Amino acid sequence: MKNKYVISPLLDFLLIQFPIWVPLLYFASTNLFPNFYWIILISYLIVGEIHFGSTYIFFFDKKYRELFVTEKYIFIFWPILIIFFCVFFAIYFSVSAVLFIILLFNFWHVNRQSIGILNLYNNKEFQSINKLSINLLYIISFLLCAFGVIKFILKLDFYFENESQIISLFSIVYISSIFYLFLKLKKSKSDDFNLLFNFSTGVFIFAPVLFCSKIIDVFAMGVGMHYIQYITITWAVFKRKSDKKKTEGDLNYSNLANLNKIIIYLIIYAVLMVFFSNTDIEYKNEQIGIYLVPIFFQLMHFYIDMFVWRFSKSHTRENLNPYLYRLS
Predict the structure, then answer these.
(1) Per-residue pLDDT tens for 81-103?
(2) Global pTM value
(3) DSSP letter at 282?
(4) How far is CA 22 from the centre of its chain?
(5) On the chain, which terminus has fewer CB atoms closer than 10 Å, C or N?
(6) For residues 62 and 252, what is the distance between their CA atoms, to the nearest angstrom?
(7) Distances, alpha carbon 247 to alpha carbons 254, 318, 321, 324, in Å
(8) How far apart are CA 223 and CA 205, in angstroms?
(9) What is the pLDDT of residues 132-145, one digit of tens each?
């Protein structure tokens, strides 16, 4: 696996394995330039929407459009049912209740990507260590998500009264996990410690729930790393696939899905979604503009990605595997 990477060893490290610069840049810029807080936040939200929109670029490929048609039950029936359920739930309960359900779905989706990245760089000679890191990540991310719900959704006094102890507990659990994985790698005589960075990113994506006072900052700082990972991997796949289609003479695909056009499509999509999310529409004394069109596209991103990235499916192996890595 040492000779396999998505773009290059350095760019993979900075954009996929350990993009810690994403939350650090957000933290530094919002503190150094507080008057520009909303500009910085909106910039991060646009990146997030580009990430959501990247899912739909898969269907530029004829083989994915055929999959959409042949598996109507998965790609048409269930999405319609899910959206109707959300609308019904919002009308009879509250929009906040729907948001909470989608938030849990989001947590699961983000964690699954982190697991996927651990597998992406998995050294098969040390499969047991990779499985151990996945199990540890499940445990830690579950705890962080639970703390996030208690802090931002339920707003229980228990959390705020014991916040310093909870942060200390998290630090001990994380450091102990890293040290344990390090020892396991050393014992296995492995000199590839990228797993520690992949694992750390999976943890740090959720860690801002302990340090931020606003949930939107949690997404910008932590889930922002998830956005960059996803964009990097999908765009690398799109570029390689477009190049191959061009050499095969499939100009229809290569003209439609070249990287420059993808960037234009996704920027337009992202700006529209951010605009829609800031409309002011009140329902049951709730400002629901942010939950209108964008939230349903985000929900479909969570749902569709469960299938287009499922490597147990032959369609995914045939249409993603050949474009996933760049060999040195």
Answers:
(1) 998 888 888 777 777 778 788 88
(2) 0.92
(3) E
(4) 13
(5) C
(6) 10
(7) 9, 18, 18, 18
(8) 5
(9) 999 999 999 999 99
